[in-house]
Structure formats: C-alpha cells, structure tokens
Amino acid sequence: HPPNTWRLSWMLLPPPDSKHLKERLEEHGKTEKSQDEQRHGDEKATIEQEKEDKIEAPTEEESDDQKTPQATPAAPSIAVPSFNLDSSNTSTDPETTSMPPPSLLTPNSPQRAMPPPPKPTTKPSTPSLMPPPSFPAPNSAQRASQSTSSSLMPPPSRPTRSSLGVPAIPGRAPPTLSPAAQARAPPPRIDTPKSSSSKVKLAPGFSPLDWASLAASKNLANVSSFTRVTPSLLKEKNGRKGNDAWSVYNGKVYNITPYAPFHPGGKGELLRAAGKDGTKLFLEVHPWVNWEGMLNSCLVGVMVSESEGEGLDAMD
Ligand code: HEM
C-alpha cells in the first residue's frame, strides 16, 4: 500500500476492541504460530510468539487507553480494509466504511446533496472527501457586484433625449459620433451676451510684460523731485503742445505719457483723463486693475490746493 492509503485505512478501521477485529487477529495469530514452529524450531518460535502476542493481542486495559493499533513491520500480512478514491473495487464493508467516497455516489443519490467540486486548476496534494463549496454562488449578490465592478463591463449607457422626457426635434437629429469622438468633443457651449471689448491691438514691444520690465528699470515720472501739484499745474499737463500728460488717481499724480502706448484700452482712452482726475473713469472701466503697482515709476507727486502749492513753492 502507498503511505496515503495506509493512513486512510487506519483511520477507518474499527476500534481494536471490536469483536470483528479481535476474531480475525486471533485466527491469524494461530496460523502464524504453527507455521513458525514448524519452520524454526521451539526456541525461535517462543520468541516470535511472545512478540506477536504483545502486538496482536492487546489486553483489555491496553485497548481502552489505545484507540489506534500500532502499525509495525511485525504484522503486515493482515488484510487491511481500505478503499481507493480512484479504483472501483474498493471496500464497501459497512463496518469499516462510515461514508462512501463521492465517486461511489450516483448523481441521483439522496446522499449527494453537494454538487461535484469544480475542476481545480492545480492538483491538490491530498485527496479531499468533501467538495469545496463554490463561493460566491453563481447567482449571488456578491458575484453580481464583482461583475459590475469589472473593467470589462461597458459603462452605463448615457441618458437619451427621450429617456429624459424631452421630445425629439423633427429634422434635427444630433450627429452620430463615435464614443472616442464624443470623449474628445468640447463641452456644450453656453451662450452669454457678447461683451464688447474695447481692447486694442498693441504694437510689438508694448505688451504688459514689456511695460513691467520698462517700469522696473527706471523712473519714468520726468520730474526732478516729488512735486506738489496744484489744479492749475495739472491743467497744463494735458499731453498737448509737447507737454506730458498727467492724471490724478486717488490724490496721487502720475505721468501717464510713457504708459500710453502700453495701455490695453488704447492711447485715446487713457488720455481722456489727461490733465484731470481720472479716478472715476478708471473705476468705471476696470476697478480690478492695480494702478499703483503699474504706475509706481510714473509717480509725479500729490495734489494740493492752489494756495498750498504756491506757499510750498515759495518755501522751496
Ligand atoms: C493710468 C491709468 C490706467 C491704467 C494703468 C490702465 C490699465 C489698463 C489695463 C491693465 C487694462 C487691461 C484690463 C484687462 O485686460 O482686464 C485696461 C483696459 C482698458 N482701459 Fe485702462 N488703464 C488706465 C486708465 C484708463 C482710463 C482713464 C480709461 C478710460 C477713460 C481706460 C479705459 C480702458 C479700456 C476701455 C480698457 C479695455 C477694457 C476691455 O474692454 O477689456 N483706462 N486698462
């Protein structure tokens, strides 16, 4: 017998105190003894008998303590009832076989409650008597959820116009696009009232970035020092007759002439505030623009009253 069959056979044997086994062991012991006596003489036969008596005929005390008989090379010739999963002529002794192996059950047998195990991809090392339960069941919710999360499943279909309750427009069938084309297509445009931008096309070298680098490079105020500007002086600086254009924003006076070619709204728009306070106009068009930061290098001075200007000028 191969080792696996040995182990299986011993497990299925009845307890050693069973009447059936005892009878067979005794019968076997007698025949062995008589044969040995004839062959080897009295002395050797006595030793053999003692040995076999110890092994094959356990006392009542021993059988209580020891449920499994010892397997030793001294008793190999006993016909051990066993069955093999693969062979058809296996023992079906009702005393030794508590449950028939699955291969012996007919498909319609009431004992065959469990379905046959699915064919394993890798062969198991030891044969199992019970088929493993198939998990999850073919129609279980777990299997359903697994299959929906699979990447092989197509995505849920997009709602159609009719499914949303919107009637189809006759003669205006939407163009049929492939799924890839639909993914690349831009989102639908939401039309808003067109804003009338009055930005002008700036000449090359007069971009906002160009202005930023120029304004950072030098002072563009074109005055000798910080100036107190009176209203009459501001009026003169209107950008005509070769004069610079000054404008007031929040009480500060800026020379806007250098900035004019860089103004995104155009030179004309900017110069509307030349020689004046342009705060109101400025805030009407683009209150978000940070003029202080943009025009820092163009700062001329501050607005003062006519009397303050004269007096201060006299003091200087
Ligand atoms: C010195 C002060 C000013 C500075 C620093 C300045 C700066 C700017 C800037 C940066 C923009 C572009 C805004 C943007 O794209 O969002 C702009 C646009 C514009 N600015 Fe000025 N601006 C000044 C004065 C004025 C004044 C006094 C007016 C009108 C009287 C004006 C009229 C406009 C207009 C019409 C636009 C075009 C707006 C548009 O349609 O996008 N700006 N300005």
User: What compounds are bound to the protein?
Assistant: protoporphyrin IX containing FE
Give the quaternary arrangement of the chains. Answer: single chain
Rounded mean pLDDT is 71
Poorly predicted runs are 57-63, 90-98, 100-107, 109-113, 147-151
Instruction: Quickly count the helices.
Output: 11
Give me the strand/helix succession: HHHHHHEHEEHEHHEH
Structural class computed from helices and strand pairing: mainly alpha
Pfam families: Cyt-b5
Keywords: Heme, Iron, Metal-binding, Signal
Domain Cytochrome b5 heme-binding: 226-304
Biased composition (Low complexity): 137-151
Annotation keywords:
316 residues, mainly alpha, Flavocytochrome B2, Chain A, domain 1, five-stranded mixed beta sheet, 5 strands, binds protoporphyrin IX containing FE
Characterize this entry briefly.
With 316 residues, this protein is mostly helical. It has 11 helices and 5 strands; from the N terminus they run ααααααβαββαβααβα.
Secondary-structure blueprint:
Blueprint: H1 3-12, H2 19-56, H3 60-65, H4 141-149, H5 179-184, H6 208-217, E1 227-229, H7 231-236, E2 246-249, E3 252-255, H8 267-271, E4 276-277, H9 279-285, H10 291-294, E5 299-303, H11 306-315
Parallel strand pairs: 1-5, 2-4
Antiparallel strand pairs: 2-3, 3-5
